[in-house]
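1st attempt posting a full record on here, be nice pls
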Amino acid sequence: MRASSLLLVAAAASASSLTPSAYKTLPVGSVTPKGWLLKQLQLQADGLSGHLAQFWNDVMNSVWIGGGGDGGLHERTPYWLNGIVPLAFLLKKAGIEELDPVVGIWKAPWGRVFDPESAICVNGTDLYGSDIAGDTGYSVDTELQCRDDCQGRPDCHGFVVDNCAVPMTCWLKASLGPTREATEGTCRCYGKNTPKPVPVNPMAQVEEYMSYILSHLDTTTGWLGPSHDDCGQYWGPSNVLFALIYYAEGSGVGSAKYNTATQAVLSHLLEQKRRMVTKPMCSWAKQRWMDQALSAEWLIDNGVAGDSEADLLELIGMLQDQGSNWDQWFEHWTGDAGAHNVNNAQAFKSSAVYYRYNSSATFEGHTMPELSKRRMANMDATYGIPTGMFNGDELLPEPGYERHPSRGIELCGVVEAMFSYNTMFAIHGDPAFADRAERIAYNALPATWASPTGGDMWAHQYLQAINEINAVKATPSIWTHDNEYSETYGLEPNYGCCTANFNQGWPKFANMLVYSTHDNGAAVALYAPAKAELPDGSTVDIQTEYPFEDSATIVVTSTKHRPVYLRIPAWAMQATVNGAAATAGSMWKGKASKGETTFVIEFNPSTRLEEWDNGAVSVHRGQLLYALPIGANYTVYAHHFGTDTQSNDYYLYPQTAWQYALDVDPSNVEDSIAFQSAGVPDYSKVGVAPFNHSGWPTTLTAKVRSLDSWGEEKNSAARPPTSPACKSQECGSQEEVTLVPFGGTELRIGEWPLANFAGVQTESKIVI
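the predicted structure (as tokens):
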């Protein structure tokens, strides 16, 4: 047990209730996504999210459904479920349950049916009839070519090769009948195709996994999933608890599925409490205790705890007591919590979660709400980067690299930070936390994906950097805690945790756009096109293409008069609601009448610079960070699944110049940087994506000067030269470049030196 300077109220562990959250999260199944948000969720399901259960061993063949995959921490299927469950309900609300199957190259999945090490086909065996290509067949050079041709056709189920001589003859088979020995004097080799492409049905996948997990819990103890007797056993099931809660909410209060799922969560947590008495937490469970506490609080909030409420409250106290001391870490960067980037992102919300259990708790004189705000500021000041994230290649960087724009942040850290900040907003009600969640979602999350065809979600990075001039096998690398493939794009570069964990990013964000309030009102925390249903059947319809446009219309259709709260971003200094000025960084309060009431928000953003180390700057307009896109040459170094442009691993080599200094006067930014809007594209068209890598809906035209002296460091861009870069170094003549939304780039420069100015003027500097 850790000793802590956290001052606790003695009666907290036996308290009869939790401190209410400032805003109440709507149940999964309340939000109907529209516009670009719906397209983004479709792209996720059409990409890795919907196909991992078809070909990735750690999901398809998981120990959680009786297989042998997902060993070790048993965390990958839980991570995937934490995202696919809310994704399935979001798509179902939008009327989408089944997506088209992948056709084309079909590589053998791991763990089922086909052994990649086995023979391609069985010699001496033939299958007569059912030919696709005709009785005469066609020429191939190898058995492998015939098999691959069959795998590439959805109508092919088997093949026969006459392999006596080269060229060989290949016959493709439309059906599988009885086989026989080859006729004497002929050579025949017969093989079956690997499993055929099937449609993606996220809800069917959810039902399959939830059904198995719920029907295989330990009926004696209540434990969910694989059980092992060590102090780290509590982490693996943690995200399954979240997934079961989302499954229960989506299935509807009072339904059989709701009751089964919630009782399973309750039984598991009670068994965890019993085990923690003799086997205190360690490792990942110790550092991520706040997620388990959040599940316990949900049970209490939703009346599921029953007679076990006191036990759950005691469990929350035990989790905090046995868990890592994150308050000390974020205040001083010392103690047992540690520098792991994902742990830090998850732990942002620890004080907020604990606040609900003990609202009087303090650490070194600071309340839990104060500590929540301070840790965001401390992280920004020490490790912060322009997307709203922080540098963390596995671990937070060593001295000298804390805010280096080429250093990078892990994708797992991005999605965990988004969820943490939204949770902090819900509990504390401070709009700064929602600001941050939105900033990360609209910049860092989409930028970690690349596609040669546009903006799909088949290939991601492990690490994403603000300044990224290539994505190659980097030896040496500027990052120090991950392998040389960490910035390449693919299925699971460096490590597969992010392949599983990215799935929560967009779905949980979409489910936290709108909240209900304790005064029977509604609060809009995040802006994206969607319609939310409140508990009494009233609706909040967000009509916007934000962040790609500068306004949002909120239509509240209400069964009664009710207050409405709208978040006004901190950067929206000239915002108005229905024509009247609204205070930046606030939750604007209005009133909706019975029937339909409309609120029109004009954000009126301006282009601004934010200052970083050595006078470097980033360029922002509204919630979007803008960057110089670097043209990329895609080179495939591995293929896993789907067509030749789907689940591949890629190296990206730069094809255009990137060494520039921004020639902008910080006191008059909009005189040097011009904004253009091409309008929102038609997302119903194939190949069009919200964060596409071309055809951007908004751009900036900026003046720059070439700066050839800006060099490289360990296969990455060196730190930007000190501003003003062109005073002491030779720069080229002024020219114009186009800046695009950071989230729509795969290679980019997002942090620059200024050409002829020392930095952002104090009065115009935005402190994030």
